[in-house]
Amino acid sequence: MDAFVAEFVGTSLLISMGSGVVANVVLNQTKGQNSGWMVITTAWALGVFIGVVVAGPYSGAHLNPAVSIGLAITGDFAWEMVPKYVFAQILGAMFGSSIAWLVYKDHFDATEDKGLKFAPFGTVPAIRNLPSNLISEIVGTSVLIIVILYSTEPVIEDGNGTPIGLGSLGALPVAFLVWVIGLSLGGTTGYAINPARDLGPRIMHQILPIKGKGSSDWAYSWVPILGPIIGAAIAAGIYLLLGVGGMV
Known about the structure:
Shape: globular
Strand content: under 5%
Number of helices: 10
Number of domains: 1
CATH architecture: Up-down Bundle
Largest sheet: none
Helix content: 55-70%
Structural class: mainly alpha
């Protein structure tokens, strides 16, 4: 499987599970309606597990532009590969959220609240304070990336000798990492910690024929894009400062 296809498929699986669980919890007349935050964070974590299992052997399973950028900053991933990965990740997120919408279409139609209709697509802060929201995304993503960086030795390489990282981490630890970030730091913004995870579905919310939908809230959209990128850069900087591969 080509790395582009792997990132697309892996991200599609991740987002279809993530968007799907939010739809199951917040939309009307679902089996999981009002089942709560624990259900959401658990399914997102297991969605990461699924995506990494499938994409890991072929692309390293970044599934997140912040991961690709963080690994590139530390020299563990080729910068020229970053646009290819990011494009695949965004397309995968768009496709995955569309699948979730298709599965839950009747429940979208049965839900009048525009905010609840938007929830399966994009993140929304619990308290809208953009500087604080940005900090939340930076911190959450920094934790994600620093743990990944200290868990990817040795870095695996593709046939051309390009380090692709993350695949050696294994699926289960990544799932636990995302789970604990969601439970501990995710209550402020919904922990995008992944620009593709928010941007791709937000685009689909804009263009899909969702009955009675409201705004896609583009005024907020820069926070879950810029925050994770800054967080990835900070984590990579800390990693390099402390010493690659160890605290030296």
